[in-house]
Each structure stands twice: as C-alpha cells, then as structure tokens.
Amino acid sequence: MTIAKSTSTPITQEKAKWIFQKMHEIRQFEDKVHEIFSKGVLPGFVHLYAGEEAVAVGICAHLDDKDYITSTHRGHGHCIAKGCDLNGMMSEIYGKATGLCNGKGGSMHIADVEKGMLGANGIVGGGFPLAVGAGLTAKLKKSGAVAVCFFGDGANNHGTFHEGINLAAIWKLPVVFVAENNGYAEATPFEYASSCKNIADRAQAYNIPGEVVDGKDVVAVYEAAERAVARARNGEGPTLIECKTYRNYGHFEGDAQTYKSAEEKQKHLQENDAIAKFRHYILSNQLISEQELLNIEQQVTKAVEEAVHFAEKSPFPSAEDLLKDVYVSY
Amino acid sequence: MTIAKSTSTPITQEKAKWIFQKMHEIRQFEDKVHEIFSKGVLPGFVHLYAGEEAVAVGICAHLDDKDYITSTHRGHGHCIAKGCDLNGMMSEIYGKATGLCNGKGGSMHIADVEKGMLGANGIVGGGFPLAVGAGLTAKLKKSGAVAVCFFGDGANNHGTFHEGINLAAIWKLPVVFVAENNGYAEATPFEYASSCKNIADRAQAYNIPGEVVDGKDVVAVYEAAERAVARARNGEGPTLIECKTYRNYGHFEGDAQTYKSAEEKQKHLQENDAIAKFRHYILSNQLISEQELLNIEQQVTKAVEEAVHFAEKSPFPSAEDLLKDVYVSY
Amino acid sequence: MARKISFSGAVNEAMKLAMRKDQNVILLGEDVAGGANVDHLQDDEAWGGVMGVTKGLVQEFGRERVLDTPIAEAGYIGAAVTAAATGLRPIAELMFNDFIGSCLDEVMNQAAKLRYMFGGKAKVPVTIRTMHGAGFRAAAQHSQSLYALFTHIPGLKVVVPSTPADAKGLLLTSIFDDDPVIFFEDKTLYNLKGEVEEGFYTIPFGKADIKREGSDLTIVAIGKQVHTALKAADILKTRGVETEVIDPRTLSPLDEETILSSVSKTGRLIVIDEANPRCSAAADISALVADKGFDYLDGPIKLITAPHCPVPFSPALEDLYLPTPEKVLKAAAEIIGDEAIVTA
Amino acid sequence: MARKISFSGAVNEAMKLAMRKDQNVILLGEDVAGGANVDHLQDDEAWGGVMGVTKGLVQEFGRERVLDTPIAEAGYIGAAVTAAATGLRPIAELMFNDFIGSCLDEVMNQAAKLRYMFGGKAKVPVTIRTMHGAGFRAAAQHSQSLYALFTHIPGLKVVVPSTPADAKGLLLTSIFDDDPVIFFEDKTLYNLKGEVEEGFYTIPFGKADIKREGSDLTIVAIGKQVHTALKAADILKTRGVETEVIDPRTLSPLDEETILSSVSKTGRLIVIDEANPRCSAAADISALVADKGFDYLDGPIKLITAPHCPVPFSPALEDLYLPTPEKVLKAAAEIIGDEAIVTA
Ligand SMILES: Cc1ncc(C[n+]2csc(CCOP(=O)(O)OP(=O)(O)O)c2C)c(N)n1
Ligand SMILES: Cc1ncc(C[n+]2csc(CCOP(=O)(O)OP(=O)(O)O)c2C)c(N)n1
Ligand SMILES: [Mg+2]
Ligand SMILES: [Mg+2]
C-alpha cells in the first residue's frame, strides 16, 4: 500500500478559499483555546485538533448540511469543518447557556444535529455504530446523504471498528470511514497498539477500498474524499481512508508529551505544516492572491476573538436547566 | 486464498486411533443427546456439534492438559476432544450434581479447568478475550502452553474477534484462533453477515498467518494445527485457521432448519462426512484394521450409554448448593 | 373486539400495527427475519426470531424494513440510536437482555445521554426489545432480569409488561415514544394467553395497573411476578388477608403515586422482583416508600427476590432461585405478625 | 509509621507492595505505563496512567508486568479474567468506570459467573481499578458513579474507598482476594492527603468504618460523600445534632450489621450517594433498613443523591448536581422535624 499524493488540481478558487478559511478557523480556534486553557479558565478535558486540519476540512469539503458526520473527543475541527458556529462552539467549551448544547455537553460532546454534526464523543470507538445508523437512515430514506465517521488510530483497535465497518459493508451503506492516524493514542504509539502496518490495510477484511493519504496534504485528502463520497452516494458502499497526520498539542491540555521526540515535533510543526503547505499550493497555483489570504487570516482572527468575547459575556445555564432535556417527556 | 488439503501423512497409528475414537465419541454423544432431547427429558438450550468433529479433534490432537481451549455454546465436541469425562458431561447436561459443574452450568457452560477446558460460553464472541488471557498467562509464566480459541462464523463479526486477535498479535501470544465456519449463525448465512469471503482473509488485518482448511478432513485440520501450535509454542504469535464445516443438526434442538436446502444436507450428511472420510483414510493407509475400528465404535457406544445411565441415576444438586460457589469467600 | 392471544402474539401484533402506521418504523436484530439471502427460503418459513416472536413481519414489510443483523450488538444497537436521531423509528431486538454486555455503551452512553448532552437538540426514538427471565433452564448467561441496570440510567425508559394486553399497548407506546425505551419480554410468558383488544391502542407510561384490589396488604410485583403475586393473593384471601396487587408496568418512569396511595390504605408492603436483590428495582420501590410513605407503614417492607447468586442451570436449583407464592406467604405472615397465614 | 500521602499515592503504593510481594500480580490497562516502545522515553518520564496514578510502576517492574494495552476494553479486561483463572493475579485498569459499556460482558457474564457456572472449580482473582465521580467538569460520559450496576451483579465484590488509608488497605485486600473485585477511585479525591501507614496492611471486606460517632442521626455515605457527611455532621453538631457517619467501604459485601446497629441507636437514617437515585446503592441501603431495621426507625429514610439526569458539563449545573452539606441539613431537618436545623 502506497501513500496517495495529490496528482491533479480539481479545486476551484471558491473551494480553495473555503478550505483555507476553515483550516485557519480550526488552527486559530484551537490555538486560542490552548491559550485560554493555560490560564485555568476552561473547565474539564480539552483535546485540540490543531495540526490535523487538512483531514476534517479536506473531507467535509464534499459534504453539505444534509450529510452526517460522527466525531471524537478531538471534535472541534470536525465541528468547524462541518459549519458549526464559532460563537456557539466557544460558549459550549466555556459551559455557557449560549453554547451549541446549552453548556451541557462541553468540548467532548459538542454537537449540532441541524448541521449533520452528530456529536463529539467521549467514548473512543463510539462513532462507528453511530455513523452506520446515519448511513442506514440515508439509505432507507433514499436521501442521498452520506455519513462520515472520523476516528483515531487508537479507535482502530476497538471492537466497534470491526462491527461498524462490517455492517456498513454488508448493507452497502453510504458511509466513509476516515482514520486520523496521528501516531498516538494518548501516549501509546500506533505501532505498538496496532498489529497492522496501516489502518487502511484492514479494509481488505471487509472487501471495501482502503486508501492511505498524506493527511497533511489537504488536496490529497480532498481527492480521496471525492472518490469515497461519490462511491457512497452511488450506493456502492463504504470506503476506508487513512490520513497520516499529527497533533500539534498534547493528548489533552496539560500533557507534557514526553513520548514525542524533539525531531518529530520539529518535523511536523515546522517543516510539514498542513496550512503552510496549502498556502504554498494556492500561491504557486495562483488560485488566490496573497493579499486575499491575509484578509482571510485576519477575518478569522477577528471571528475567533469575537467567539471568546461572546462566550465570556454569556451567562451560565440556570438551575432549571439541570433537569431539562433528559427526556422529551417523562 | 486456497483451501489447504492434506498432503502427507504424519499421523501415527496411535494418534489415528485417538482421533478416530474421539470423533466417534463426539458423534455418538451428540446423536444420543439429540435422541434424549427429543423425548423432552433434557432442560434448556442444547447446541450439537455433530458434523464438525474433525475440527475439535484435529486441533486438540496437538494439545495436552496444560494447554487451554475456550469454547462456544456448541461446546460438547471441544470438551470431548480436550479429554473431558463423558459421564461428567452427560450429567452436567442433565443438571445433575455429578456433572462437571455440579449441574450449575449445563450444556452452555460446561467446563473442566483441570483439563484446560475453560468453558463453553453462552456469549457469542466471549471466547476471544478469554483465550488471550490464557495465552498471556502461558507467556508470562513461560509454561509452554498454548491457548486455542474455537469460534463460529457468526462470532467472526463480533467486536471481540477484532480486539482479541489484535491483542494476541501485538503481544505475540501463543494463541490459535480456530474458526468453525459451518455456514450459518443460527439461521443467518455466513455470506450475508460477513463482508469477507473467508474468515481467514481477515488474518491480514493483524499481520498473522491465516489459512483455510477443509474442516471435514481431519488430516488437513491436524496438519494446519501442527503448524499453528508450533508457531505459538515458538513464541511467534497467533495464527487464524478457518475450517469450513457443517453442523448436521439444527442451530439448537428444535430448529426446523428451513434455511438449509435438501441438496446441501444430502451433500454434507451423506457424501462428505468427516468420520466416514477418516475411516476410509485409515483403511486405505492400512493404519488400523477394520476390526479394530469396529471395536472402537462399539466401545464408544457402550461408553455413551454408560454416560446416560450415570446421568440418569445421579441425584440433582441439593438446596444448599444454590448459594455455594458464588464467591470463594464473602 | 378482544380475543385471547398469546403474549408473543400480542408483541408481534403491536409491531405489525406500528409498521403499518409509520414507514419510519423498522425492525432490526439477529434473525428477526431469518435466513437472509437464502434463495429457496419462502418468507413464511423464515424463523422470525429465535422464539418466533417476529414471525411474519418480513413477509408483510420486506427485508428493507426487517433487517437481519450480524452478531454485532454494539454495531446494530448503536446504529439504531442514530437511525432514530436522524429520522427513523427503529425497533432493535437484543435477543437476550444478558447480551447487554456487548452493547451497554451504545445504550448507556449514547442512546440515554444524546439528548441531554446536546442540550435538547436531538431526540432518540428507539425501542430496544429484549428477552429476560429465569425458569427456562437457560442458565446464568441467558436468564437474567437486568431491568435495574437500565432503571438506574437517566435518559432511558424501562417497560416490563406482565400480560398480553399490557405488552401490546405498552409496546405501541414505546415505539411511538420519542425517547429511548427498553422493553422487557419474559421468555416464560410468551405462551401465556390473555384477552387483547384488536387494533391500535396505547397504554401510557408511568401508570401502574392495579391487578387486584385489597385493603390489608400491598404487593408490588414486576413482570411475570405479577402472576406469583396474584396466586399468593388468592391463597391469602382464604386466610383472611385482602391483597392489593400493583403492576408498575414501567419502572422508569415509575408511578409513585399509585404505590404510595395503596400503602397509605394497607400499611403493608411486599415487593416481588425475580432479579437479584442488591440495588434492584425491588430495593428502589422499598426506598421510595421508606421515604415518602414511611408514615403509612405498619411494619417492615419485605422484598421477595432472587438470592444474590447467578441463575443456576439445574432445574432443581432454578426452582429454588425464583420467587414463589409460598415465599410471599411467609413474608406476609411476618409483617402481619400471624404465623397461621403460612400454615393454615 | 504513618505519613501524610495523597489518595493516588496510596493507591500507587498498594500496587507497588502487591507487585513486590507476588510475581503473579501484573498490571494492565491503557497507558498504565505509557509510551510503550518509544525509544527515547525514559521510564521515569512515562505517563503512569492518565492521572499519573500508576507512575513509577513500570520502572520497578518492567514492561512485562506493567502492560500498556490498546483501546480494547473487552479484549484486555476479558483477558485479565482468564489470566486470573489460569494463575495470575491481574490488576486491570478501566480508565473511567463509564467505559464499562465497552466490556460489561467480560465483567458481568464472565468474571462474575465463571466460578458459579463451573461448580466452584475455578477462581477469578482479578481486580479492576476504575475512576468514577462527578465534579471534574468531565461531562456525562466521564463522570458517572456506576457502582450500583456492579453491586447488582452477584459474583462481584465492590469497593468504594473514601480516604487514602482505606484506599491502600482495601486495594491490597482486593488484589489478594480470590474473587473478582471492582475497585472505585474517585478522581476528585486523588489529591486528598491523609495519614497512611507504611508497609503492607489489609482492611477486611464487609466491615464498615464508623468515621464519626453520634447518637441522634445515622448518615451512611459512599466514597467521596463521606466527606460531605462529615462536613454536614460538623454543622449539625453546632445545631445540637450528634451524627454518626458510616462509611460502608465495600458495597458488596455490605456490612449490614454496623448500619443496622447504628440505626438502632439513632432511629434516623440519611444515605448520601452521588450516583443517580433509581436502583442505587442508596436505595439498596434504605431497603435494608426498611426491612431489617424498620422497628428502630423514628422517621422516614432520606436519600441524598444526584437527580435522575446525566452529569452536566457546565460547572454551574454540575455544582447543583452533586450532594452538598446543605442538602443534608435539609433532610436532617425534615426527619428530625426541626426547621431550625437548616436555618440556624
Ligand atoms: C472506550 C474508551 N476507552 C478509553 C478512553 C480514554 N481515551 C480518550 S482519548 C484516548 C486516545 C484516543 O486515541 P486516538 O483514537 O488515536 O485519537 P487521538 O486522541 O489521537 O485523536 C483514550 C484512550 C475513552 N475515552 N473511551
Ligand atoms: C453476544 C451474543 N449474541 C447473540 C447470541 C445468540 N446466539 C447464540 S448462538 C448464535 C449463532 C452463533 O453462530 P456461530 O458463531 O456461527 O456458531 P454456530 O452456532 O454456527 O456454531 C447466536 C446469534 C449470543 N449467544 N451471544
Ligand atoms: Mg491518535
Ligand atoms: Mg456458524
């Protein structure tokens, strides 16, 4: 199995703008959360997506609101790529009443069902069956929708990986399984925990296509996603895409990352940054002017700051919210 | 992937006798249980192993008491092949105090830890992690023991398949995974429920050897087991062996088997019987005389009848047994 | 019009009616149709579930809506959760409630919590039907009654019917309820026959049914144990004790009012629950009354449950494991303080 | 000699002592060592668990006995069960008790039932350590207290320590006990410091600890809530109420005697349990007393538990979710019938 690199450029200017902006939103949002967290303001566990932007954005570039995604504990990037509101997201992370989930979910359960974002998930491997269910609805209702399941290299060894992909395969459901192989599950290297060389190699066990993609190359991800989403929409069943990537921060905020080597960090954070790479791609293909890119970057900076402001000035939920929405009726 | 057929004959006369006797014990034991069950004497769910004898016996021919096996709801054959006492087994199936488990386990939980038989299991897929645990003990204690995990084609889609094999692979445990692909999980065909063509194909997902064997050919099973057990004992890790087989009776006693075609039944029960095949093999290789085979058959018949007699005359457990052995101490 | 049909027939009928009424109702589970993709198999020969409870559904609704699944409970129960959240109204069959061990996460952490975690912006109208109960000689892994585990978990509704008529009405309510419901079917009740109205009807959740009225003693009994209670009540009557038998029908929500008002009348409470005793539904009902009904009580609250041990295989032991009318009489004698109730 | 060490330090020390004492004791779980196969990583830089509780163990005992696992709870918890049945004495870490959804079968149907189903011919000396508890802003899937589920299941022992000293002694008992034990560690207690004896000692199961003596009111409190009880007791004393605080320490087995004898003295009972209320350990203890201690009771049994809802993320809501001394005062006022207790 070889790593698929981008070959052609099917990306329009408009798409390129969208991709660039979304990647920036994710990066700046996460950098900001990191900064705020270090001040001790934010409650709970926070897992940042910075470094992996090309995956969520390259995939979601092919989806619209009727399509579904299931996410992970590291879900901010998926949310943003799927079009969730930054204000609502930041508020949620603060535990405020104006959050996407009224402050009840937090970073690990952030969701926006209207946007087809079926939730971050505190349970590793939790997303596989959930993506299958969304795919089942799409198939039975003939809605043409696709369900994407984002999951980590750690999740790849959980039983739900096996059950979920097998189900999607035998029922030929419109599901795309996207492995975000960032090399680690917490402090445990992929190579230690997984008996396979590539996660995509496991596709053979389900008679579905499996593809390894450079997850720092958003164009490559975009192209692989195009093939997989088309296959899904055509009723041909699921695909497994493995994106080799890296998380720029620790497993969660507070992780000293002793398991990462200095060279490795240098390589990923400095030399092989997905956003820098795409910026270079845009400029060398003269898709968007440098000035316009700068404008986008600045708009994003403003939007993220606005989100923090919005979150900070928002109220906490009130006492009667505690018992609300446990049930529709009881 | 091709089906491995027996090529040479490493089977000694002594081994052949043992194999022939064990296969007969299983067949006659199960035929007898079938007969008694139809009279309404036996309690609960009973799943018969008749038809699949070559698998349990071909594998267990390489094991001794220090080795472990984990079994399934269809566990009588594994028990017999692993050397469990027929009287104790039959009594257990009757729910009698003299049963292997004092009547508390029954057909679905029959076990004999002293013989390394770690229990039939009412939970499909339950055996994978259990075999891994026995393999872990063997490895850490350097006992040289091997753990064999018998499982069905239905179990092959359960999450524990994936978790168990991956664990055994990364830890290079002395475990042999033996799929008994009898074509059905209850009334559901293997081909419908599984996205793989062969269960053994899934071995690639764990970087371990996978082999398909004719599960009606005990010599072929014996040879494949030899390779896998040697590999395990050498510390090279697990192997996945898939035995294509067939169950002669229904899923459980009482199943009308409408999902099986007449031709299929004819083929398996008449033309492709594992015992008849091995009998022919023995005779054509002049390993054992026909007279001696007849003697064995008759001895087995007597032993099975004795087992029924033993079970019938045995007492039921008494009231104080109800609360015994929930804990070692409480 | 009412006719006598079996408990399993009533369950089957409810599913049929629900699937006729709403295209979004689908059924999935292991062998719920049976024989998927077997060429020669006529749909009417298909199993329809391991106990035949779903028989005939695939004939009427086809294999698109009656889906056989692999043995992958986490996979298909989890799938049912989001299928529900995205617009379907699935009935997922967990063959035996004992198999919850393979898919508790999907029920406890996903189905039960989605709505709350999402701030009310999702609903999960899934019904999980599952078999429970001892007495079938099915041993420790196929005989449990695990409704306490589910009742403990907020976000789930828990239904345990005792009669064919209740089973039908409550299952229809379950299917059209917008929250996740776990619907328990006692395998030893399937052949029980009872009067069941034809056509579509529902029974509200959180409304206990007073299966027998009485003034001296309240028995709250769960599922099949309602019948143990009724038998005991018959005997108690001959010994001068008028027993009120309350069937809560749903454990979550629980009809606290009916239970409390009965105890306010009788002053005495026995709970019969064939599950294991610790942290059980029986203990839960006792705790309710020991708080809110304490002032009504004339004596201790007695629980008749299984002992704290797994379900034994041997018929000789399993019969000792289960509640019996005799055990109820003993408890009644104790709280009433009249030994003669047992021996009379 | 006793020194002040933290709860997590006490847990760590117990494991160290156990592993020194017996070669068969091994530890396995996700990142219990951390950084497996990372060349440049020194063992002293390894995580030692997500909260650092197992830090240093891999240094002393090596990676053969301190095994990092993939995220495969069914796989490695199940493996621990038979590793135990075949001669090892594993400590398996289930990082958060909320993840039991991924491996309930291995605990409920295998570990708990093997011995019974096999007629006593096996033993399963496995200890499953797991984190629980709300207050960490970890939201619905990482904050539950699920000990009721395990207490319901016969064959398991359930330990919920509240202090460093208890944690150490009870963990050592757990590891060397021949039955499967689920050992709960409240993540919000890890930094709590307390006097802990050096060296090896054990604390017997089924023996409650009277954390404070009193004659007017009995509070049974579970895990961290022992501290809520003690705080409430301090306040109650200033209002003339002498409170006895009982820490059961093990829920299964439960020390019925100590609880009943306390209530026989005080006549009043409050149970504090931060888990959800239905079919809870709190309800279980109430039911015990409503039966065997009924005659001692002067008033209703009050339960202070979480409400019937998932754990909310927002700190504002989570603080309302948990028991507080104020809630205890209110309940005490109610059963004692003296409003002044709350407001004084
Ligand atoms: C079922 C389950 N087991 C364990 C955990 C604890 N946990 C949270 S994230 C994580 C690592 C996940 O690794 P991976 O899937 O590679 O995702 P990444 O964090 O690298 O994005 C673990 C073990 C969990 N949340 N759920
Ligand atoms: C976890 C679980 N799910 C479902 C069942 C019900 N069940 C018992 S046997 C069986 C079929 C098993 O098929 P297979 O693995 O092929 O074994 P076979 O019966 O063919 O030997 C099923 C679904 C179970 N016992 N456990
Ligand atoms: Mg990872
Ligand atoms: Mg099969």
From TrEMBL, chains A, B:
Residue ranges occupied by any Dehydrogenase E1 component domain in the UniProt entry: 22-319
CDD domains noted in UniProt: TPP_E1_PDC_ADC_BCADC (cd02000)
Sorted UniProt keywords: Oxidoreductase, Pyruvate, Thiamine pyrophosphate
Cofactors: thiamine diphosphate
UniProt record, GO biological process: pyruvate decarboxylation to acetyl-CoA
Protein name according to UniProt: Pyruvate dehydrogenase (Acetyl-transferring) E1 component subunit alpha
A Pfam family matched in the record: E1_dh
A molecular function GO annotation: pyruvate dehydrogenase (acetyl-transferring) activity
TrEMBL record, chains C, D:
Keyword Transmembrane appears in the UniProt entry: no
Entry keywords, A to Z: Oxidoreductase
Record EC number: 1.2.4.-
Ranges where the Transketolase-like pyrimidine-binding domain occurs: 5-192
GO MF: oxidoreductase activity
Pfam families the record matches: Transket_pyr (PF02779), Transketolase_C (PF02780)
Name of the protein: Alpha-ketoacid dehydrogenase subunit beta
Organism: Aeribacillus composti
